[in-house]
Design a protein that fits this description.
The chain is mainly α and 196 residues long. Helix content is 72%, strand content 5%. The longest helix is centred in the C-terminal third of the chain and has 32 residues. The structure holds fe (ii) ion (2 copies). The site of one fe (ii) ion has 6 residues, from helix 1, helix 2 and helix 4.
Amino acid sequence: MSEYLNDGNGIEEVTAEVPALVNPQHKSIFESGPKGQPPNILNSLKRDHDVFKTLYQEYNTTKSKSDRERIAKEIMKGVDIHDKIEELVFYPALRDCGMEMGNNYVKQSLLDHENVRSSVYELNILFQDEGVESQMFNNFFNKMMTDFIAHAELEEHEVFKFCQKVFDDKKLAELGKELDEMQFTFQTTYCMNENI
Ligand SMILES: [Fe+2]
Ligand SMILES: [Fe+2]
């Protein structure tokens, strides 16, 4: 597991523990940054990606239908929130960084998000109509996760490294705080809607 730290001379990756999976209905899924350090948007987003990958592995290995339903719902909801928050906090900052490359990454990312979003939309219908055990749901779910993971890897391997060059620690921390606050708001809203 990698953390993105800026030592002033470029990007340093350090090992961190895989965050424990928690129910997003009860608290923000991820804590930002290493313990005692201010939030860092790149660490928060990377932890999102890692949790979805771990959940997907769990989805593929469990034999329990109820676990598959729970995990599938958690992933579909979580991916939707993750992408929306990136679009509200991360991409505007990237677009305004003053470099054309930032704008290009945003354009590509929005296309990738649209692709995943339309799959999640279809999956919600298939979840109700066919169920998680159907071949059709599984095919769509695997496609959505393959697309999501490919996009997450583009972000981690290219976009995050670009961000380390164009943003200083203070800016990354500010964005991290903003992202965490918005994530909490989105999760609370989802939670309230589910309880109606
Ligand atoms: Fe993204
Ligand atoms: Fe992402």
